[in-house]
Amino acid sequence: MRNSKLYKGSLNTIILKLLKEHDKMYGYEITQKVKTITKGELNITEGALYPALHKLEAEGLLDVEVVKVDNRLRKYYKLTETGSKETVNKLNELAEYIKTMQALVNPKLA
Length: 110
What we know:
By secondary structure, the chain is α+β, with helices and mostly antiparallel strands. Helices cover about 60% and strands about 15% of the residues. It has 5 helices and 3 strands. A 3-stranded antiparallel sheet has the order 1-3-2.
Protein backbone atom coordinates (compact mmCIF):
# COMPACT_ATOMS: atom_id res chain seq x y z
CA MET A 1 0.00 0.00 0.00
CA ARG A 2 1.36 3.35 -0.96
CA ASN A 3 -0.25 5.12 2.00
CA SER A 4 0.82 3.31 5.14
CA LYS A 5 -1.38 5.57 7.26
CA LEU A 6 -4.41 3.69 5.95
CA TYR A 7 -3.31 0.39 7.50
CA LYS A 8 -1.79 1.66 10.75
CA GLY A 9 -5.19 1.77 12.43
CA SER A 10 -5.65 -1.89 11.52
CA LEU A 11 -2.25 -3.16 12.62
CA ASN A 12 -3.45 -4.61 15.94
CA THR A 13 -6.29 -6.38 14.18
CA ILE A 14 -3.88 -7.80 11.59
CA ILE A 15 -1.59 -9.12 14.33
CA LEU A 16 -4.44 -10.63 16.34
CA LYS A 17 -5.94 -12.29 13.24
CA LEU A 18 -2.64 -13.89 12.25
CA LEU A 19 -2.04 -15.18 15.77
CA LYS A 20 -5.57 -16.60 15.86
CA GLU A 21 -4.84 -18.50 12.65
CA HIS A 22 -1.29 -19.62 13.46
CA ASP A 23 -1.35 -20.14 17.25
CA LYS A 24 2.04 -18.54 17.85
CA MET A 25 4.41 -16.50 15.72
CA TYR A 26 7.55 -14.43 16.12
CA GLY A 27 7.87 -10.85 14.90
CA TYR A 28 9.75 -11.39 11.64
CA GLU A 29 7.40 -14.25 10.80
CA ILE A 30 4.43 -11.88 11.16
CA THR A 31 5.99 -9.31 8.81
CA GLN A 32 6.76 -11.96 6.20
CA LYS A 33 3.30 -13.54 6.42
CA VAL A 34 1.65 -10.17 5.83
CA LYS A 35 3.96 -9.49 2.89
CA THR A 36 3.14 -12.91 1.40
CA ILE A 37 -0.62 -12.65 1.91
CA THR A 38 -0.75 -9.16 0.38
CA LYS A 39 1.68 -10.04 -2.43
CA GLY A 40 4.07 -7.36 -1.24
CA GLU A 41 1.50 -4.58 -1.09
CA LEU A 42 1.69 -4.29 2.68
CA ASN A 43 5.02 -4.18 4.47
CA ILE A 44 4.96 -3.91 8.23
CA THR A 45 8.15 -2.38 9.56
CA GLU A 46 9.79 -3.47 12.79
CA GLY A 47 9.32 0.10 14.00
CA ALA A 48 5.55 -0.34 13.74
CA LEU A 49 5.29 -4.03 14.65
CA TYR A 50 7.20 -4.30 17.91
CA PRO A 51 5.56 -1.35 19.69
CA ALA A 52 2.18 -2.84 18.69
CA LEU A 53 3.17 -6.29 19.99
CA HIS A 54 4.41 -4.80 23.28
CA LYS A 55 1.21 -2.79 23.67
CA LEU A 56 -0.96 -5.86 23.04
CA GLU A 57 1.12 -7.79 25.57
CA ALA A 58 0.76 -5.00 28.15
CA GLU A 59 -3.01 -5.03 27.60
CA GLY A 60 -3.07 -8.74 28.43
CA LEU A 61 -4.02 -9.82 24.92
CA LEU A 62 -0.75 -11.64 24.17
CA ASP A 63 1.54 -14.01 26.01
CA VAL A 64 5.22 -14.24 25.14
CA GLU A 65 7.24 -17.43 25.07
CA VAL A 66 11.02 -17.16 24.69
CA VAL A 67 12.62 -20.10 22.87
CA LYS A 68 16.27 -20.71 22.05
CA VAL A 69 16.63 -21.27 18.30
CA ASP A 70 20.11 -21.71 16.75
CA ASN A 71 21.78 -20.19 19.83
CA ARG A 72 19.50 -17.16 19.66
CA LEU A 73 16.52 -16.27 21.78
CA ARG A 74 13.31 -15.88 19.82
CA LYS A 75 10.11 -14.39 21.24
CA TYR A 76 6.94 -16.14 20.16
CA TYR A 77 3.67 -14.30 20.65
CA LYS A 78 0.35 -16.04 21.19
CA LEU A 79 -3.15 -14.95 22.13
CA THR A 80 -4.38 -15.09 25.69
CA GLU A 81 -7.99 -16.07 26.31
CA THR A 82 -8.83 -12.37 26.51
CA GLY A 83 -6.86 -11.84 23.30
CA SER A 84 -8.95 -14.47 21.51
CA LYS A 85 -12.15 -12.70 22.53
CA GLU A 86 -10.76 -9.31 21.54
CA THR A 87 -9.76 -10.70 18.14
CA VAL A 88 -13.39 -11.55 17.42
CA ASN A 89 -14.43 -8.02 18.47
CA LYS A 90 -11.71 -6.35 16.37
CA LEU A 91 -12.55 -8.42 13.29
CA ASN A 92 -16.24 -7.53 13.63
CA GLU A 93 -15.37 -3.84 14.02
CA LEU A 94 -13.14 -3.98 10.94
CA ALA A 95 -15.79 -5.75 8.87
CA GLU A 96 -18.32 -3.04 9.80
CA TYR A 97 -15.80 -0.31 8.96
CA ILE A 98 -15.06 -1.89 5.56
CA LYS A 99 -18.80 -2.20 4.87
CA THR A 100 -19.34 1.47 5.77
CA MET A 101 -16.41 2.63 3.64
CA GLN A 102 -17.61 0.48 0.74
CA ALA A 103 -21.03 2.16 0.96
CA LEU A 104 -19.34 5.55 0.78
CA VAL A 105 -16.84 4.74 -1.95
CA ASN A 106 -18.96 2.48 -4.13
CA PRO A 107 -22.64 2.73 -3.14
CA LYS A 108 -23.71 0.44 -6.02
CA LEU A 109 -22.14 -2.52 -4.21
CA ALA A 110 -23.72 -1.73 -0.84
